[in-house]
Amino acid sequence: MQIQNNTCECKECIVRSLIFEHVSTMELGTFCTTKREENYRKGQVVIQQGAPITEFIYVKDGLVKLYTQSGQGRNQIISLARPYDFISLLTIFSDKHYQYSVSAIEDTTVCIIDLVRLKELVRENGNFALDLLERMSRTADNIIRNYNDINRKNLRGRIAYILLNFADTIYLNDRFELPVSRKEIAELIGMTTENVIRILSEFRKEGIIRINGKEIEIADKTKLQFLSEHA
Amino acid sequence: MQIQNNTCECKECIVRSLIFEHVSTMELGTFCTTKREENYRKGQVVIQQGAPITEFIYVKDGLVKLYTQSGQGRNQIISLARPYDFISLLTIFSDKHYQYSVSAIEDTTVCIIDLVRLKELVRENGNFALDLLERMSRTADNIIRNYNDINRKNLRGRIAYILLNFADTIYLNDRFELPVSRKEIAELIGMTTENVIRILSEFRKEGIIRINGKEIEIADKTKLQFLSEHA
DNA sequence: CGCGGCTTTGATGTTCATCAAGTAAAGTGG
DNA sequence: CCACTTTACTTGATGAACATCAAAGCCGCG
Asked: Taking residues B178-194, what's their average pLDDT?
């Protein structure tokens, strides 16, 4: 983890993110003086569950996972966050401490803004407040819907669902490199690592997907969609 | 469902609710002219999944459930909402249509505020915006944590968990009347009705609880807590 | 009074986690 | 760069946990 200097390229970075479209250039200036960037390598912990919340963090580049840890290494992944996802959006306004951990799945750069400063901005700029509400609403909503969807599927349905998710929502391509390990997939959709592997193998044998290590290609999308919906 | 007249007892109702503590008396006045109340009897639908979101709704009195419906009557309850819970808090700022249904578990009165008016208030009143953010954050957070907690427990653990939840969080009493049917408990914690009944019976036989229809009394709280945490 | 929904219990079968054991890959220190 | 250790991946066998099916009693409601 390294702290970088604050050359103010915020404009580009932040403006690209919808949430900040209502922040004026002047207000943006004050961000640049208070924000900082940090880099994390794959595997490093960005936020430790239980740590006090003093800052607002978002992913500028890379990929992170939000997860809860409980005894003996049994983790549960709440969600994955990509650039411009606001990883501390969940508890940030309601809690004093993080209820989950965040760590980098790929090399990641995050931007960090002081929470007090962010709150000031909410108070001063009503449109920004609305943007933030909308963003937060969407984030929470997606997570909840995800839990709901996954809970009513059997294991084959879950694997189908997550594969379609990667292809259609994240990579926009039926062929992609899995960013996560089999173990992490298991933690993401609530099953064991062995069964993730088993079912991926089944899908391969059935000609639904092609696998080469972390590389996945969807061969029979119709069938995968059917499985996702009906299993 | 009846529409009531708008005698402005908002002050009492709304002020009691933390979220509105930063709304001035003047602003409160404009609420009274725009808000309305509706009554629903047990079992009636307050919000139908898919309906357009045009208003902000909260429970003034009673108890409702938020749930998603999927084919052939297999529902999943997302959460229960009691007075001053903001039932349309989730999708309200991010979606145009409700992603879930809401119906009354007990006779319920809801207050309804025009969404446009609410957004104006967010824009005008920064402290109110922060309150709303906090409230929303907490709501979403609780739901997510709940899913997380429940997912890692086996069936006995889930029943223990939900019973403790009723006793400690909702009724503040080790003896209470179950507001929900066995079927609804099942939908709330992701198991079948039969197994809810079976495990409640087991707990009764094991002397952990006493049951009389909908009335539950926790007899051995220590054991229930142990089950909730270790099963 | 009868019908439909809720509740209860038992029997059965499927799904899934766990255990075990081995291979492959990736990081680590000399 | 190679031996070494650790972590990820894979497959099979087993049993436990849980859903499903079936049948019957109960209760409220029209």
From this structure: 95
